[in-house]
Amino acid sequence: MGNYIFLGLVLASFFGLSKLFTKAGIESWKAWVPFYNFFILSKLLNKPWWWCLIMAVPGVNILMYGVYGFNVARAFNKPSNADLLFASFLPYIFFVKIGFDPTAKFVGLDKFKIEPSKIIKNWIDPIVFAVIAASIIRGYFIEAFTIPTSSLEKSLMVGDFLFVNKFAYGPKIPQTPLSFPFAHHTLPLSESKKSYLEWIKLPYFRLPGFGSVKNNDIVVFNYPDGDSVALKHQNQSYYQIMRDIVKEDIDGAAKQNVKVSYDESYARVWKFVHENEEKFGAIVARPIDKREHYVKRCVGIAGDNFEIRNGEIFINGQKQAMPKKAQHNYFVKTKSRFINDKYLDDLDIYVPEAYSAGPAGLYNGVPRILIGYLNSNVENGHVLENFDASSYRNTFTSSDTALYYLNMTEETAGKVRSNPIVYSVVKKVDNANSYDSRVFPHKSNYAWNNDNFGPLQIPKAGMTIPIDTHNVCLYKKIIDTYDDGIHQVIIQGGQVLYDGKPITNYTFKQDYYFMMGDNRHNSADSRSWGFVPFDHVVGSPFFVWFSMKYSENNPVSGKEVLGSIFKNSKEGKFRWDRFLCYVDDGELHSIKIPFIVAVLAIWGLSKWNSRRKLKTKTGKV
Q1: If exposure means fewest CB atoms within 10 Å of the residue's CB, which of 106, 134, 317, 456 is most exposed?
Q2: Alpha carbon of residue 288 to chain centroid
Q3: In the 8-state DSSP scheme, what is residue 123?
Q4: CA nearest 290: which of 240, 331, 234, 343?
Q5: Over the stretch 230-267, which tens digit does the pLDDT of each residue have?
């Protein structure tokens, strides 16, 4: 409905323009030709002709409408504050109003060449056009992001501030153009207030880009599982919260010898979560372009047959090279308890808090990486059944052999392995056919986990795949949500029903991708929530301009700010080696020297030009 209302307002503004053009001696029909009408209006107002081009940019054109309205009010002798506010915020209706106003005469803007209001000249005009220019750049060319999670450590690190190239795969037009400038999904200084209105919803459309998504590209995308969000748990998947509570509910019932079906439990949990706002917050839906931004490595593209075997990726049966800085979890058996925060900080090892549990080694109440001592439950990196790290909580003594659980690169693992106090360093690998309920597709008949996953066919536009009651769980979210709007997909009577009609195959309408973090055991990625549709792809990170550590990850060197200004990257909070670097396949290449030379050259040229003008002026005097 909002789209039709907006279309009606635009047509009303064209009608109003036709009346204004007549008042100014211009043929009224020119007001009905989109973009050309604003070209004529720019000439009438004696403004730059390219203003009309901004009217072709969705989202930004709404701001530009207000700019035109402000100038039209003045040009037609309506310069009162009330008229200027009306024209700036409701130009569509204002054009009609003064079109029928007999007192509105075209007088032009000559008297405003020397702006009578210093506030407008010095503040409002520059700010409005700065916002318009920045909105165009941010929306269609380059946008600034911060790396929030460690899923791509050590390629892109927590605390990296980077620019994303939206033309890498083609910029998307905003699907919710009515939004607060420079905010994503929430207003500044708020954790729950939406920064956008869904009164206008534009269809998905992407401009041509420089290329297509390829294997091993690092890609920024809108989080697919973020279509619904619990506002008090925005850093978690709403669907995973539901699955976890359902599992607890079913397990609790089983302990009481009560059998509860998944559907019964889900209905009960859904009601509990949605009615318990005090704990979970409101459950809100977000449009595609307002979902959280994630950055991962594309390990499987449309058409690939994807599989993980013992932590190694296979595409169409061929083993893929591991990224240079990939990280895994390792069991580290040592002669004594010697690993502390400083040791971790020196090796730049982050603590995988999601997996850590231990009897000691707490830092500010957060469990660290000491598990206890090694026993027969860990063999060759495989955790055997019934292994429970918490069981070591009260059994550790300083004389026992220590077992640590560290997340690190193979290179760092080699450094730890070379320490004479270390007995062994063994990579953790989940057993094949070991079902993990947190791993896609979250069904026990697909006994997949983070290290053994698939095979899985990644859909490609135009590809047809047989669909049955067994494999529909792999593609259900695509069929009922991503591909062609909302549809109902259910299993009934041994058949898969699509909007009530049985189907045995499905033809996909867009490309899909499989995204993973280089931090293989500490990354919420496609192994958790499945495919990434192409209409969710945003761009590719290409430049890191600033980088800093956070004390949660680097508790020793990530604390001081002022004290780190004169410290190197290893000892201080700032990663100076990552400043002003362009990104290529996760590798950073510094351009500090060319950047400094360019800045000095521009500064020198500016000084020389100022002196030249001063000499010329002095000579004339």
Answers
A1: 317
A2: 11
A3: I
A4: 234
A5: 999 888 889 999 988 998 888 888 888 888 888 889 89
541 class by beta-carbon count within 10 Å (0-12 exposed, 13-18 middle, 19+ buried) = buried
Six-digit token pair at 415? 């450094």
Q: How far is CA 402 from the centre of its chain?
A: 39
DSSP reduced 3-state for 510:
coil
C-alpha to C-alpha distance for 510 and 302, rounded to whole angstroms: 9
DSSP per-residue codes, 326-386:
-EEEEEEEESS----HHHHHHTTPPP-TTT---SS--BTTB--SEEE---TTEETTEEPTT
The bridge status of strand 495-498 relative to strand 489-492 is: antiparallel
Residue with tokens 């599992």: 247
Beta bridge partners of 547: 160
Structure tokens at 176: 């919710």
Structural tokens at position 358: 């231990």
Task: Kindly report the pTM of this predicted structure.
Answer: 0.85
CA torsion angle 177 178 182 187 (round to 10): -140
Q: Tell me the domain boundaries of the chain.
A: 2-140, 327-427
3-state helix/strand/coil string of 387-432: CCHHHHCCCCCCCCCEEEEEEEEHHHHHHHHCCCCEEEEEECCCCC
